[in-house]
């Protein structure tokens, strides 16, 4: 605390003696008074965008007469001349034009002030401030109830995110309304989309079931990502970063702006590499982004494509508990090409069209193409497990060999989404009818590419192969009805049907052929009440259903098929948005969010603490379990020089009755029995009861922003037994972020940034796994805990050139 107090003192002192002209205000829709997020604000050579509450802030403005231009797609441009002689507060109301474009694209996946759900908007400016080349989950670390981790320890490569204790397989991710979760595992692998954040307009984080979406039913949270919108002006930029562990990022971007008020093109190329904190845990990531759009008076057509190609050395084994004190960067893998190699290409064609005075239609066709493998050196493997006969050399029979294998995934995911919107000018009643049809077609196969004793194998001996087909269809209708100026209602009904077919064998030579069908009805309803123009009460109740993932079918131990999960989600809260009163002509901005939630699960699939042979967690259905908690988030902006924000999440995450199974093995490591342990009101694994974030940001000098970030996460259990011997200790981590921006006459902006991660050099682990065993004739239980240590103090330095 003494260290933190010292930094706060150093940051705040210059604020007391430094003053510059500032132009601030709020940008809203002239009809609905709703804030417009990401509106472009340009005053001479100074520019910014509006934040999640519609506020904008331009500082260090020289005196004199200058032209202010406010623009937002779907709205008329506001252009006026300002005489800057003192700080100016100017609120802007933009009027909608005859077409609606970006709103149509995201209407199916976005929540707003009228939907009664819990969400946080992260603006382009906020993303840019936090983007030093780490994976996208790290850019969301300061949002409520979020915990992130990195296999390699430094935020580049394979990273994970949990929201309210729900991992990425329960977090529905869409990009421009298109689902990107893997249809079989439900996971989203951000390593396959490196540097996507550099091409993102904004992100909405929904907690709980959320609104109807075009992907797998949200079952804990949703991440709705919107890529770059139509830019009015041409631009070009180059970003270069270097940092600890030989981390490097190089990115170039361009945009043509609107050509003849109709056409626009944007593009980006990126390369990110890092050696990682963990031994040999390197990453080599390449990506591109390209979009081309046509904007008409009553419609829009837009093509978006982005791709990522990754090569990462495997670090998923973690560090054994007994090595944490002596060798925190330990990696058990030593084969020089023990790597994961994957490429994922995304293609999206979006369209929207005004059909009548109050109706518009939006939709998209999409294709995701993925293919790749991970390579492993395996010693003393049974030839029979690879469909190979034993090798006979004279009197010697060789039944085992060392070998190198590759496990492949080759898939296509394609489909269509649509949304018909009714938007009258009075905005008292709005409605959407939408849905999606998606198809997944994937091949799983394995090949032996080298063996010490090759038997009668062929080149690239294929030892297993299987196929998977999954069809997912959903249709939904949602309405917002404003009963009075203060009271509003929200309703959302979704029907979803899934057909899943597996055929062939898996890597253990098991026949996995099976077929499953699911039919889900997901109703949602909410209410909002405006206490005042800047205060809102809300509540919602939603039902979410979710099918099991592939591993639940093929890796499940014991008889019976996995069951679908159901969640009943109650959300209730209070929102405060304000920027008044004014003090000595300067704006004070503030916001406060307080939310209570209760997530009641039926047949929740929870981690058992055990893993299959490739490190994936095994799960089992639990009849009764729940999550409940309170989330608080607040922000205070003083004099446009100091910004303080905090969030606190307090939760209780319980399984009411849980039976743990521990296997007993004989001397040859063959299972010969089990021991069952029963628990009541035990904690759900990987669910901290306390998470907090804090940020203090100041502008001590012209163009310089300094931010101290502080994160606290309480202990988490590695399994569902709440055992103190199988847990992740709580941790506190502080980061320091510095950004210095100058605006020379020959370019739009030159920026230098420094991010000091883990400022106080804490030694902590953010993820892990465990498994337990017993042996014949020995009543002792043996626990094997593995952890993923995060990097000690490290830095990232970036240089941005924007034209």
TrEMBL record:
Ranges where the TonB-dependent receptor-like beta-barrel domain occurs: 313-759
UniProt keyword Ion transport present: yes
Main location: membrane
One GO MF term attached to the UniProt entry: siderophore uptake transmembrane transporter activity
Record-annotated TonB-dependent receptor plug domain positions: 113-221
Signal peptide span: 1-19
Location of the protein in the cell: Cell outer membrane
Topology versus the membrane: Multi-pass membrane protein
Family listed: Belongs to the TonB-dependent receptor family.
Protein name as it appears in the record: TonB-dependent receptor
Organism from which the protein derives: Adhaeribacter rhizoryzae
């Amino acid at each position: 605390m003494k260290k933190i107090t010292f930094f706060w003192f150093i940051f705040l002192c210059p604020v007391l003696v430094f003053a510059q002209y500032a132009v601030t205000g709020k940008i809203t829709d002239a009809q609905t008074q709703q804030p417009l997020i990401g509106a472009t604000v340009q005053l001479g050579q100074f520019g910014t965008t509006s934040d999640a509450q519609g506020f904008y802030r331009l500082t260090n403005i020289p005196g004199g007469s200058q032209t202010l231009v406010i623009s937002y797609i779907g709205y008329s441009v506001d252009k006026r001349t300002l005489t800057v002689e003192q700080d100016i507060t100017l609120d802007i109301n933009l009027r909608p034009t005859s077409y609606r474009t970006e709103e149509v694209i995201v209407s199916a996946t976005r929540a707003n002030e009228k939907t009664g759900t819990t969400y946080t908007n992260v603006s382009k400016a906020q993303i840019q401030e936090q983007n030093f080349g780490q994976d996208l989950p790290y850019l969301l670390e300061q949002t409520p109830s979020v915990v992130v981790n990195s296999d390699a320890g430094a935020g580049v490569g394979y990273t994970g995110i949990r929201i309210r204790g729900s991992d990425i397989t329960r977090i529905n991710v869409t990009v421009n309304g298109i689902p990107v979760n893997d249809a079989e595992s439900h996971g989203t692998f951000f390593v396959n989309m490196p540097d996507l954040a550099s091409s993102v307009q904004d992100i909405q984080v929904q907690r709980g079931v959320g609104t109807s979406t075009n992907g797998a039913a949200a079952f804990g949270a949703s991440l709705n990502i919107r890529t770059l919108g139509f830019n009015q002006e041409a631009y070009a930029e180059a970003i270069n970063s270097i940092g600890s562990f030989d981390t490097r990022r190089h990115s170039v971007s361009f945009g043509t702006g609107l050509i003849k008020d109709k056409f626009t093109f944007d593009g980006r190329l990126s390369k990110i590499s890092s050696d990682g904190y963990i031994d040999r845990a390197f990453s080599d990531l390449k990506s591109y982004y390209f979009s081309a759009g046509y904007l008409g008076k009553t419609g829009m057509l837009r093509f978006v494509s982005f791709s990522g190609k990754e090569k990462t050395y495997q670090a998923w084994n973690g560090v054994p508990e007994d090595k944490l004190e002596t060798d925190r960067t330990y990696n058990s893998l030593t084969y020089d090409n023990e790597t994961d190699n994957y490429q994922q290409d995304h293609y999206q064609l979006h369209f929207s069209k005004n059909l009548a005075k109050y109706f518009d239609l939006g939709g998209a066709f999409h294709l995701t193409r993925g293919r790749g493998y991970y390579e492993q050196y395996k010693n003393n493997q049974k030839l029979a497990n690879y469909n190979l006969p034993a090798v006979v050399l004279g009197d010697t029979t060789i039944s085992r060999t060392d070998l190198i294998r590759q496990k492949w995934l080759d898939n296509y995911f394609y489909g269509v989404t649509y949304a018909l919107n009714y938007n009258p000018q009075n905005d008292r009643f709005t409605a959407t009818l939408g849905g999606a049809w998606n198809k997944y077609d994937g091949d799983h196969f394995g090949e032996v590419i080298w063996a010490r004793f090759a038997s009668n194998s062929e080149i690239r001996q294929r030892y297993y192969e299987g196929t998977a087909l999954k069809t997912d269809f959903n249709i939904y209708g949602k309405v917002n009805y404003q009963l009075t100026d203060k009271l509003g209602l929200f309703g959302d009904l979704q029907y979803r049907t899934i057909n899943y077919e597996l055929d062939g064998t898996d890597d253990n030579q098991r026949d996995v052929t099976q077929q499953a069908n699911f039919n889900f009805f997901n109703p949602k309803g909410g209410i909002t009440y405006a206490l005042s123009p800047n205060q809102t009460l809300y509540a919602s109740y939603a039902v979410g259903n979710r099918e099991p993932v592939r591993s639940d079918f093929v890796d499940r131990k014991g008889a019976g098929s996995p069951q679908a999960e159901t969640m009943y989600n109650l959300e209730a809260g209070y929102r405060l948005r304000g920027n008044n009163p004014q003090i000595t002509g300067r704006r004070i901005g503030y916001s406060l969010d307080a939310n209570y939630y209760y997530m009641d699960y039926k047949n929740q699939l929870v981690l058992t603490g055990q893993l299959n042979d490739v490190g994936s967690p095994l799960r089992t259905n639990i009849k009764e379990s729940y999550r409940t908690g309170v989330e608080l988030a607040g922000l205070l902006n003083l004099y446009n020089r100091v910004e303080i924000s905090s969030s606190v999440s307090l939760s209780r995450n319980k399984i009411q009755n849980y039976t743990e199974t521990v296997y007993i093995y004989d001397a040859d490591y063959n299972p010969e029995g089990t021991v069952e342990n029963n628990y009541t009101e035990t904690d759900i694994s990987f669910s901290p009861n306390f998470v907090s974030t804090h940020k203090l940001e100041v502008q001590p000098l012209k163009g310089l922003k300094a931010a101290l970030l502080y994160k606290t996460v309480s202990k988490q259990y590695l399994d569902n037994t709440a055992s103190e011997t199988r847990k992740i200790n709580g941790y506190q981590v502080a980061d320091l972020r510095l950004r210095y921006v100058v605006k020379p006459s020959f370019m739009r902006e030159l920026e230098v940034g420094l991010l000091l991660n883990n400022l106080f050099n804490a030694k902590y682990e953010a993820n892990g796994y465990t498994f337990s065993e017993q042996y014949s004739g020995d009543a002792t239980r043996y626990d094997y805990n593995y952890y993923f240590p995060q990097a000690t103090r490290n830095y990232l330095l970036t240089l941005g050139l924007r034209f």
